Amino acid sequence: MTSGNLADRLDFARDAARDAGALTLVHFRSSDLAVEQKQDMTPVTIADRGAEQLLRERIGARFPSDGVLGEEFGETAGNSGFRWILDPIDGTKSFVCGVPLYGTLIGLEHEGRSVLGIIHLPALDEMIWAAAGQGAWQQRGAAKPVAARVSCRSKLADGVFCTSDVAGFGQVGRQAAYEAMQKATRLSRTWGDCFGYALVATGRADVMIDPIMSIWDAAALQPILEEAGGTFTDWRGVPTIHSGEGVATNGILLPEVLAVLKAAGA
């Protein structure tokens, strides 16, 4: 992997994310939006499928040797060493309720390591992106991009803790961990899905924890959090997108967060 081919893919991914996000906005808050239930009982819409199809078509045309894994249409193998990991609408539950805190996620692995991430929040007209060694960046509307940086808070008691769904902790036997984090922090909120991780990456929140994640939920997040000066790990502190769970912090608070989770039996 060279900095050149990573930079090319980053430019491409930003444009593709904007186009996929624009497609979702066509259906956002539509009065006749049909919502289906998948086998895992999560919702899916024509917007999810259409946005992923758009991304797959763009990737296939521009980087035909790259692999692709997406939430809605599975995996297409490649032989370049790169694999795109797509979540066309992260936060479909928010999307179908007309809540603007959903996003399009594009991650890119190179030989098993997540090296590029895009969080595009179409309804908020905001994008956060990063590539390995190139920093993390935030852009709102047509404004000039600015560096995305995590907060400098050094005490968990002063921190803002986010999660996507409180019920998820109980589903995996970790309700005590949620309650411990709620008690340990100044403020807890369900500003969830990729929006919560965007908040951590830009210093607006300090900790985001999910007990249940798929790889397409996580792939874009690790490079963004790390390039912004923070961490994205599993509940044991291992940096990975493959664990089925996620902990994002500003880095300073990671040891304290892990101690709270461990004490709660997580």
- Structural class computed from helices and strand pairing: alpha+beta
Fold-level CATH name of the largest domain:
Fructose-1,6-Bisphosphatase, Chain A, domain 1
* Distance between the amino and carboxyl termini: 37 Å
Order of helices and strands: HEEHEEEHEEEEEEHHEHEHHEEH
Oligomeric organization of the protein chains: single chain
User: Mean pLDDT, rounded to whole units?
Assistant: 96
Characterization of this structure:
- The chain is α+β, with helices and mostly antiparallel strands.
- It has helices at residues 3-27, 46-62, 92-96, 166-171, 175-184, 193-201, 215-218, 221-227, 254-263, and strands at 36-37, 43-44, 67-70, 74-76, 82-90, 103-110, 113-121, 126-131, 136-140, 146-147, 160-162, 187-189, 207-210, 231-233, 246-249.
- The chain folds into 2 domains: 3-147, Fructose-1,6-Bisphosphatase, subunit A, domain 1 (Fructose-1,6-Bisphosphatase, Chain A, domain 1, 2-Layer Sandwich); 156-263, D-Maltodextrin-Binding Protein, domain 2 (3-Layer(aba) Sandwich).
- The protein is built from 9 helices and 15 strands.
- A hairpin with a 5-residue loop joins strand 9 and strand 10.
- Helix 5 packs across helix 9 (254-263).
- The mean pLDDT is 96.
Summarize the structure.
With 266 residues, this protein is an alpha+beta fold.
